[in-house]
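PT: before anyone asks, these are the final sequences, not the draft ones from last week. 939 residues across everything. Please model them as a single complex and drop the result in this thread when it's through.
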Amino acid sequence: MTVTTEIGKARARKEDARLVTGQTNWTDNIQLPGMVHIAFVRSPMAHARITRVDVSAARSAPGVIAAFSGADFAAEQGSLPCAWPVTPDIVMPAHPPMATDEVRYVGEIVACVVARDRYAAADAFQLVDVDYEPLPAVLDMEAALTEGSPKVHEAGNKSFEWPFAQGDLDAAFRDAPVVMERTYRQQRLIPCAMEPRATVAAVSGDEITLWSATQIPHILRFLLAVILGIPEQNLRVVAPDVGGGFGSKLQVTAEEVLTVLLARKLGRPVKWTESRSEGNLAVHHGRDQLQRIKIAAERDGRLRGLSVDLLADMGAYLMLVTPGVPLLGAFMFNAIYKMDAYSFKCTGVFTTKTPTDAYRGAGRPEATYAIEHAMDDLAAELGMDPLELRKRNWITHEEFPYTTIAGLTYDSGNYEAATAKAVELFGYDDLRKEQAERRVSGDPVQLGIGISTFTEMCGLAPSRILGSLAYGAGGWEHAAVRMLPTGKVEVVTGSSAHGQGHETAWSQIVADRLGVAFEDVRVLHGDTQVSPKGMDTYGSRSLAVGGIAVVGACDKVIEKAKTIAAGLLEVSADDLEWTPGRWSVRGDPEQGRTIGEIALATFAAHNLPDGVEPSLDSEATYDPNNFSFPHGTHLCAVEVDTETGQVKIRSYVAVDDVGVVVNPLIVEGQVHGGIAQGVAQALYEEAAYDADGNLLTTTLADYLVPSAADLPTFVTERTQTPSTTNPLGVKGVGEAGTIASTPAVVDAVIDALRPLGVRDVQMPCTAERVWRAINEAKGDAR
Amino acid sequence: MTKVSMTIDGVRYDDEVEPRMLLVHYLREVAGRIGTPVGCDTSNCGACTVLLNGLSAKSCAVLAVQADGAEITTIQGLANGEWHPLQQAFHEEHALQCGYCTPGMILAAADLLRDNPNPTEQEVREGLEGNLCRCTGYQNIVRAVMRAASASQGAAS
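LR: through. Structure below.
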């Protein structure tokens, strides 16, 4: 029998068949008999006291079934959960899904209308009359922390302060030959998954089903049960096909809670579908940090110490993991570099803006941006090539496993190899030469090179570590493998996919492990009735945690099959050997049973050994013992027109090391899309507010998600240093590109402009900002 | 209410609709052609792109009554026994991840190739500027369109 390995094969995806033909099951496609539609009325004020809500006119409008204000839910709606109280004294204000007496950001829900169709709901919701008594908006984090600032919440504007220190920082800075201080601002971003959120809920007796465009059906079910007091066994949550998430659907939302409550109140199926302009206001935002960093170094560039003082904008409330996001960065500012001391302090600040929470990378892109940007700045200060500076500081491949100054143990990596490959593909030396020529000739179009030798921590996460960080759940993942009598296989996974390709990748893992055909495997996910256990999908955890659970379940199937095969073949189990797909007698390979034959034998169960359960079905729950540490080197060359400020990416090379690759097509796709989102932060996107706290970027005309014409072709390659902490040797890849690319692009812009006296440009580096930076630098020079 | 009559994916539909009803809502909620999704409310994202009398149109920017008498092709009507070369190419080149933009992207690309059967990569990028994707970084979408173009060229020669 020929053994073909599925791991590493560029399989086109199984998911595509429904996606390219329009047979997809988006939440908004669900139509149930008697279903009615919800429209939410949202606050137009950044901060105000609600003095009156009158829904009577809306209630009597044509086609309207019901209209409610916050008071109607006050007794049952509870408070939206925050699962990550990062310090014992954290200020965690109540967060009613529908505001009852005060609103704290534009977009907060104050009332709702339920009507026969979405048009009637949209008409009637304009008849809801709300009176507000304006309160001062709180928009700037530094101002918010000053004494006398208006308060977002009664308890004040500081949610928490989280300090962390390792090594002797004073010693590192005392007499340091070089000390560099920088302040960087991570602008606020809007995740903008292409599928707007949608919910449907239906009640049948005491059973409630919620369909939601969510990344986390399992966590959502658990938390809805807890906060609403619905017995968990009576609650089913389904994540049908979900059109992207990027963290934005890693949430327990007001709309989900209210959809469930409305279905229960009205006794009929209800549906809510978000518009994009509603979503830009109400989906949690990402990033928004002020980073003050201070580096101590030797003259030769070796790092002595790093201190980070972070202000993180929580927005108006703490959502599911809001306070934890900046802390994921705490372990990443030191990145791939060795140093003697490190300190980190994060202050979580309330403002009257949309709450922030996880957005692709969640804390690590912010940290990586700061350290990689600072390394390029430091290299410039020292008059050193930025690659050389990195080489003097990075962990060398012989040093793994390496425990960093932040206390994480990186299991494996080879920064030298990835960098060497990237430098060659990029033509680094030639580009440096061209850059020098353009500088000498005073070319109006200057060339800049940006470098990001990133790593990141993902594969969330060892449950014990999550516990030590006060996170409210574990980091394990669950899988089950069911052998059908025809020899086909069903795989149940707790990783709830929303575009990643789990159905394909998991099929490859199972085909490889069990020796069955790729086509014979079906992957089931995203419905708590089908896949009862799971921790869902975020933090680049699916393969490195969920995939390993699949391996564990397969291995149990194989072990069970061994006992049964021994019985069928009338030999001792010790005399059997496994080749993928088959147990056979050692030394007599003709004598054997395929896994399919053994599955059929358990179906009949006529001739099983005594005491053997007639089933091969197995499940496994895997708790990782470490994070996953993908790394890579991204190099970006930009051309900056110094007369217009226009930035054009000329070339972009990414060499990523994500360990063993199950499906290179999927990995490459993740890297492309990840880089694009990081480039978007560098050059295009920003959630902007006016002085009254109104979001100015509510549409895709104002919030500039890049199009195909705005992005270059990326050159992507890989090195492969297997992870040593899981049996597949895999690492996460979902967020790597986003984490890596932002500093590479911004550093390239600055690198082009340094000779003109430009030291920094605030992201996004729009033509206007770049042009202003050039002209301000000219002014300074004068 | 206004009478409208149109052919959608080869089937004739006669209905009475509110004059303000968007074509995309007519397709999804009246005709039950739910393969066409809605991604925004300002005609920026292109997820709802269909072919209207053979030309690409964002069906959120057209009223159902404006499509009276028209022939509409949605993603559900594109395959003709076997997948359209663009559907095949999107699959083979991994030009989709979550797939939400895919129906609109494929139909916009179909119109692009009708207009320019042999585009350069830059022409593909510019031609698809009105369709946003958040997952792929567009690289494999561009590859897929180029592949479908050469497949069609091959078939034609």
